[in-house]
Known about the structure:
The chain has helices spanning 35-44, 90-99, 157-160, 163-184, 191-204, 206-209, and strands at residues 10-11, 20-21, 24-29, 48-54, 60-65, 72-76, 82-87, 108-111, 114-117, 128-133, 139-144. By secondary structure, the protein is α+β, with helices and mostly antiparallel strands. The longest helix has 22 residues, at 163-184.
Amino acid sequence: MNATGPRHGNHEGNQGGNKVMDYRLEVVRIPVSDVDRARDFYQGLGWRLDADFHFDDGARAVQLTPPGSACSVSFGSGPASYLELVVDDIDQGRSELAEHGAQVGSVFHRDGSKQVPGPDPAHRSYNSLAAFTDPDGNSWLLQEVTTRLPGRTVSPLAVYGSVAGLADALRRAAEAHGRHEKEIGHADPDWPTWYAQFMATEAAGPAAAS
Length: 210
């Protein structure tokens, strides 16, 4: 489960550098003693209820998102707490983390509340996962998401902080695109895609732009 709207899963530097996979922190699992009470409390704060799943075996999973937030909270039966990273490709994400030293478990998928070895056969969104822990025992869950559920959107202000910050980002994109058009020697008819890629790369930080 997750909160944010559609995004490209890899960023490429403006000079055609190597693609860097996105690892989006989108869910924080928290321990609660009473699921209904916790759900009502957070809804009372004005948080969006993304999911309240009741499984045949009695298991339950609830997720809510604060207004404008790119990250949600979840709780229910099962593990008390973990952090969830969302990727577009579960196999690539797992491989990259392993290459950087994480001891990542095998990919599995969900069948209701059950865990079944291997990725979801159809690679349906939200269904393929892999788990790892850091040296202090903090639990992480990697989840593959390619298509978002309706309503799972987030304000761009979660990235840019304010309308003024978003406007500044658009100005930087416009200036950079002007230089790009001078380099190619003609107007760029696909400028919206160029702007989107520039802003996504810039927001992702130096590693994506290298």
